[in-house]
Amino acid sequence: MMSISWRRIQVIIRKELKDALRNYQVLMMVVVPIGMALLYQNMQSLEGNQLILIFPILMSFGMTGTIVQSMIIAEEKEKHTLRALMLSPATAIEVMIGKSFLSFFLTLLTIFLTMLVTGLSMGISLLFWCITLLCILFFITVGTIVGLMSKSLTETAYLGMPIMFLMGLSPIFAPLINKAWLTKIVSFLPTAHYLQATELLMKGKTFIVGSHWLNITIWLILAVIICLFVFKRNRIED
Amino acid sequence: MKTVINVKDVTKTYQEVQAIRGVSFEVKKGEIFGFLGPSGSGKTTTIKILTAQIRPTTGSVAVFGKEPAPSSEYMKRMGVLTDHSGLYERLSIEDNLLLFAGLYEVSRTRVEQVLIDVNLKDEKKKAIKHLSKGMKQRVLIARVLLHQPELLFLDEPTSSLDPSNQKYIHQALKELNRAGTTIFLTTHDMLEAEGLCDRIAFLNGGKIVALDTPENLRIQHGNQTITVRLMNGDKKLVACDEQGAAQIYHYLKQGQMQTIHSNEPTLGDIFIKLTGRGL
């Protein structure tokens, strides 16, 4: 049975954090959702709709979850450092856990900061944080798929941006386009369910968010299966 | 002597291209084994098979007595430096080495030691992106030396280094070899191969066309002649036989001889002779 070394994972995490602090592209992905939070905070004062404050969180899912994760994996492939890691005692799973930790930590930090900026009062809700963590895991898995499929950093933009808009930001834009077919498609997406669940939690209805949990969990399982398939295919192609 | 690498009738086919065509060889413990061949001859494919990155299409491969597998235990025993090895450009030399020191569980003192070995101690705080190609190559070499592997695969290790830095690296490799590390080396540099390798295999079109010690290869493929330079500036080519010996004796007796050199072929000459192409 394959064993996992937490010590090696810690070494990779330490390197990822050092590298991220020097990577302006990664830092930008943290700054943009916080900037949007400032903008939405003012809009919320005008419209009085607290749900609008969730939008910077959706942006964080897409930007720091998916895009950052895909960027750090694609860069490792492009610069041939992923091969160097794979030829070290670190196993594939240790490398992936170590790398995903950075995106996970940054997404969580960004969400926390956007909530601090907007003053969103969900901080104390355990259910809110649980469903948020589930969404972060989903978006990081999607980022891993994009990173593994991309051969370079530039390719992550081609592949990652449409996915980020579709998966992360479509619940924001779909109502503006107001087309029935688009609304129908968006209603199946995990972010749409995240928004609905958050709305219910805001109203104090904690017992009827089950279907939303189920939807996000199914998306996460699907993403993990695709991720494993892409990872195996990548190895065979090598 | 114990066999570290045992390759038998290995072939590797990528779609319709046959990269390796029935290669067999053994590498003994403590040997520096040179694998020489032009681009596309199958050197990198062989290293990929031996380092468990790909599987052979047919044939058998055993490293340390077992089929290579991408496990932590196997990776701890060997080190790899290929022409595609990468470094973290935003991090310093020291941070790059500390990452791998952590993965291989070696001490910070060892990091300092390899920095001295590759002549980079004073530059350790520099970010990789500010280094020259040669310095980056030295960092890569430092990285594979870190854990003092039992078996080291080096693919063109000194290709972008100047002679003085090459000397540092050759010294470090010799010391590592003296300490017991078996080295599998591919290179285009015939002098490097001659200076470092105990045995050499010439690879061409996915096949081994010659395998022996550099000395034996020269003897086998030499033209058995001696060049004599006379006092008057003339050069004479003398055969290594009874008649040639008499001729040399005559030049000596007459006091005409200025210099005498045996005409051993270089490894490059032998390679061209065997394959009809240069490296």
From TrEMBL, chain A:
List the top taxonomic levels of the source: Bacteria, Bacillati, Bacillota, Bacilli, Bacillales
TM helices/strands, residue ranges: 21-40, 52-74, 95-120, 126-149, 156-177, 212-231
Q: How does it sit in the membrane?
A: Multi-pass membrane protein
| One Pfam family it belongs to | ABC2_membrane
Query: What GO molecular function annotations does the UniProt record carry, in alphabetical order?
Result: ABC-type transporter activity
This entry carries the following GO cellular component terms, namely: membrane
- Any idea where this protein resides? Membrane
* Name under which the protein is recorded: ABC-2 type transport system permease protein
Q: Which UniProt keywords apply?
A: Membrane, Transmembrane, Transmembrane helix
Name the source organism: Seinonella peptonophila
Domain ABC-2 type transporter transmembrane intervals: 9-197
From TrEMBL, chain B:
Report the superkingdom from the record. Answer: Bacteria
Keyword terms: ATP-binding, Cell membrane, Membrane, Nucleotide-binding, Translocase, Transport
List the InterPro entries hit by this protein, alphabetically. AAA+_ATPase, ABC_transporter-like_ATP-bd, ABC_transporter-like_CS, ABC_transporter_ATP-binding, P-loop_NTPase
- Cellular component aspect of the GO annotation: plasma membrane
Q: Which PROSITE patterns match?
A: ABC_TRANSPORTER_1, ABC_TRANSPORTER_2
Q: Where in the cell is it found?
A: Cell membrane
Q: Which CDD domains would you find in this protein's record? A: ABC_DR_subfamily_A
Reply yes or no: does the keyword Transport apply: yes
Q: What is its main location?
A: membrane
Chain ranges of the ABC transporter domain = 5-230
Q: What is this protein called?
A: ABC-2 type transport system ATP-binding protein
The organism named in the record is: Seinonella peptonophila
